[in-house]
Amino acid sequence: MAEAIAPGRLAAFSDGVIAIAATLLILEVKAPSAGEEVWPALRHEWPALAVYAVSFLVIGIAWIHHHNMFHQVRRVDRGLLFLNLGMLATLSYLPLPTATLGNHLTGHDAAPAAVFYSASLTLAAAWFTLLWNHLCARPYLLHPAARELAHEARRRSLLGPVSYLLAALLAFVSPIGSLILNAAIILYFIVGRRSPAARVQ
Amino acid sequence: MAEAIAPGRLAAFSDGVIAIAATLLILEVKAPSAGEEVWPALRHEWPALAVYAVSFLVIGIAWIHHHNMFHQVRRVDRGLLFLNLGMLATLSYLPLPTATLGNHLTGHDAAPAAVFYSASLTLAAAWFTLLWNHLCARPYLLHPAARELAHEARRRSLLGPVSYLLAALLAFVSPIGSLILNAAIILYFIVGRRSPAARVQ
Amino acid sequence: MAEAIAPGRLAAFSDGVIAIAATLLILEVKAPSAGEEVWPALRHEWPALAVYAVSFLVIGIAWIHHHNMFHQVRRVDRGLLFLNLGMLATLSYLPLPTATLGNHLTGHDAAPAAVFYSASLTLAAAWFTLLWNHLCARPYLLHPAARELAHEARRRSLLGPVSYLLAALLAFVSPIGSLILNAAIILYFIVGRRSPAARVQ
Amino acid sequence: MAEAIAPGRLAAFSDGVIAIAATLLILEVKAPSAGEEVWPALRHEWPALAVYAVSFLVIGIAWIHHHNMFHQVRRVDRGLLFLNLGMLATLSYLPLPTATLGNHLTGHDAAPAAVFYSASLTLAAAWFTLLWNHLCARPYLLHPAARELAHEARRRSLLGPVSYLLAALLAFVSPIGSLILNAAIILYFIVGRRSPAARVQ
Q1: Which of A20, A26, A30, A101 has the most B C-beta neighbours within 10 Å, making it the best mutation to test the interface with B?
Q2: How many CB atoms lie within 10 A of CB A173?
Q3: Is the Cβ–Cβ distance between A75 and A7 less than 8 Å?
Q4: Residue B149 CA neighbour count, 13 Å, CB half
Q5: How far, in Å, CA of A149 to CA of A128, rounded?
Q6: Does A23 sit within 8 Å of D17, measured CB to CB?
Q7: pLDDT at residue C201 in the model
């Protein structure tokens, strides 16, 4: 059954959720309270700030990826609607693993926090592959010119979940190493020609 | 007295409130603090995460329902404006029952928390019936083609409050059972042909 | 110096801020924690919930008023831009007096909390009079058809700050009485023909 | 490689993030709790309220500046996209230095808090110079009529980071003096003809 939700409206609603999820992240970084010395307290927060930066960029890149995807969509069906809702629920929940890793990165229980964080990124990124997969199987949802490109986009979209999964595995041995790997993945997504967030052409 | 607020502007404002209400829900789930073990703390949060997922989907489905409704509206009167505001106030308040149930689902006072939660969902869903009722009584607010459909939509819109009310009653005997019933209702709303969120055709 | 910010863009940005301010209000109502009994804890929160409802409607009415105002505006100058920014800053700060009154309405220090609350509403409403005043003095900012109406709108816009100021004065003797007066003012704004939020015609 | 993200979509997403960042600021001001006297507690919060007002206006002015900039942009490339994302991440993080300064302005460790605050404003403002610089070096991203103006806009955009940097230096000797300097900078940005936020003509 075709839903008559216009792709533009769904994209605008998604933009709103994504913008809010990105902006709420900072609430998980604790400001030095009145009784604390400022510099030591901020130094103590560097892991939270580093994870904030990584998560903000992950969500920013997801926005770009989402925007590029919806640029190709001409019709929304119910499956797309609810896959998209699942993706939004997962992005909206990222403040939780972000705060978890920020609290534990330099502590004694850093490995499970880093595994949880990278596994959450894997999950968030996997929705994009599911979305592209749904579109590839239903080419009538895409603009005619986009039907060829969608298969390439689906292939590229695997790079996100696979890379974050590697970071999750690395986290078992080196939590900080896995955060650095996440940052490197993001850097590649920013500058790389074959990044999932780059428009397929 | 006719207000000159365009349906599109009211829908866009409502989209904003709904997107924010959905995204704020995660703030009620507590991240493991620096002194806690990560896995046990997260396991302890599973009720909060389960309730988060249900509430996020409830709000997402409300968005779809709202969108489908406003697709049929060609004029906004004052009654519609304030019924819509009441509906937004109720959706915006859902983080409170969500956090209440998340805190109590596995505790000794779970039944009242689950009653409060499902009663809140009932209230939120009932606004949609009130809105459709207002539209059915004032067909000049609707696009001509939608006037027939509105009665069917009003009838279907009862499914939400009635189902959530049953979940509220079930909550007196089984809090977890009522959360599972809520999840089943949502699943039906996602896949069911006669779901209130499905477009009437 | 004329700014080239289109009224539509300024209105959309303002809509965003207003929607967020309304939705954040619920974060100030504390959910019953795991160790508390649910019903007694919620009963204890009734003042916070009552103030939540009043504040949400105040902000909703401000949105309608703002929307009606910007419907008449065809050009934005720098004065309008910054008066609007001051108004947004005041609406965004309402979670603070809302939480203050919610915490104190039934306590021993209720009067100052209620004075603070109604004084904050007075301030928020006064910006609208300042905005209309700015527009009346610069009719070239308005659509030609709106120039007559603006004087009537300015006159009506006084009703908000004057009524909330009376509620602030009443708060010195009866905090709950002043909240009831605020609710009555809002009810009038919802149903009254000469409400500031009603479109002048 | 040219991204096909329309400037309007990027501006709308940025508007959302900026509106949320401004509105979240108030959450860092603590409402008097039930056990506290209201007036003394609010008096104790005046530094937080003063810093709230300054930060809200800083973000509001950034919005105006951003809006004026994107009014000149006709194409978005990947560099612009990620410079803009960096700028948004920095604006979104302002609740942290805002809360830090609010907590410490009248305490014994005010100087580092004020240095941190003004340094954060410097960083946020510097992104605008980077953005204008990117545009000046790639005039094909701008509307033809804007290519001359961009150099003037870049020059003016230096006023923000340079002024905030002076405030950061002043903060070492007078934390309150530096907050007053920040307020004066903002006042100039509001009324000054050559403010970075004023449209170049």
Answers
A1: A20
A2: 10
A3: yes
A4: 17
A5: 15
A6: yes
A7: 60
Amino acid at D147: R
Could you tell me if C190 and B3 are in contact, meaning their C-beta atoms sit under 8 angstroms apart?
A: no
In the prediction, which pLDDT does A2 show? 39
- Per-residue exposure over D122-141, b if at least 16 CB sit within 10 Å of its own CB, e if not: bbbbbbbbbbbebbbeeeeb
Question: Residue C86, Cβ neighbours under 10 Å: how many?
Answer: 19
Q: DSSP states of D145-158 as a string?
A: GGHHHHHHHHHHHT
- Distance between CA C137 and CA C140 in Å, rounded? 9
Q: Left if phi > 0, otherwise alpha if psi is -120 to 50, otherwise beta: which for A110?
A: alpha
Lookup: tokens for B93: 């308040």
Strand partners for C77 = C2
Sign of CA dihedral C112, C115, C121, C126: negative
Among A183-187, D6-10, D72-76, D164-168, the range scoring the smallest mean pLDDT is D6-10
Per-residue pLDDT tens for D7-64? 888 998 999 999 999 999 999 899 999 989 999 999 999 999 999 999 999 999 999 9
Angle CA(A116)–CA(A120)–CA(A126) in degrees, nearest 5? Answer: 145
Check residue A1 and give its pLDDT.
Answer: 34
Min CA distance, C21 vs chain D (Å)?
Answer: 6
The pLDDT tens digits of the residues spanning A74-100 come to 999 989 999 999 999 999 999 999 999
Say which range, A42-46, A158-162, D8-12, D16-20, has the weakest mean pLDDT. Answer: D8-12
- pLDDT of C2 reads 39
A19/D28 touch (CB, cutoff 8 Å), yes or no: no
Pair of tokens at residue D172: 């070492």
3-state secondary structure of B2: strand
Closest approach of A15 to chain D, Cα-based (Å): 6
Tokens in use for B149?
A: 């459909």
Contact residues, chain D, for C1 at CB < 8 Å: 193, 198-199
Q: Counting every residue, how long is chain D?
A: 201
Q: Are C171 and C111 a contacting pair, CB within 8 Å?
A: yes
Q: Extract the tokens encoding A124.
A: 């968030």
CA B112, CA C182: separation in Å to the nearest integer? 31
Our CA angle for A79, B85, B200, nearest 5°, is 35
Interface partners of chain C (CB pairs < 8 Å, 3 or more) are B, D
Spell out the alpha helix ranges (H) of A25-174: 38-44, 46-71, 78-92, 95-104, 110-137, 147-157, 159-171
Torsion of CA C1, C5, C6, C7, to 10 degrees: -80
Integer Cα distance of D31 and D49 in angstroms = 11
* Chain D residues 19-58 within an 8 A CB cutoff of chain C: 19-20, 22-27, 29, 31-34, 36-39, 42, 49, 52-53, 56-57
**Hey, how many other C-beta atoms are within 10 angstroms of the C-beta on A43?**
9
The CA distances from residue C123 to A54, B16, C59, C160, D137, in Å, are 40, 25, 13, 10, 46
Residue to mutate among D9, D17, D18, D23, with most C CBs inside 10 A, is: D23
Q: How far apart are CA D49 and CA D55, in angstroms?
A: 10
Please report, as a single letter, which amino acid is at residue A24. Answer: L
Q: How confident is the model at residue B91 (pLDDT cuts 50, 70, 90)?
A: very high
Q: Determine the residue among D1, D81, D96, D106 to mutate to test chain A binding: the one whose Cβ has the most chain A Cβ atoms within 10 Å.
A: D96
Side-chain-side CA neighbours of residue D6 (13 Å): 5
Task: Using the Cα atoms of residue D34, residue D35, residue D39 and residue D42 in order, give the sign of their dihedral.
Answer: negative
Do D104 and A38 lie within an 8 Å CB cutoff? yes
Give residue D191's pLDDT band: very low, low, confident or very high (50, 70, 90): confident
Tokens describing residue B123: 């209230």
Q: How far is CA B151 from CA B156, B163, C92, in A?
A: 9, 19, 40
- Secondary structure class of A2 (helix, strand, coil): strand
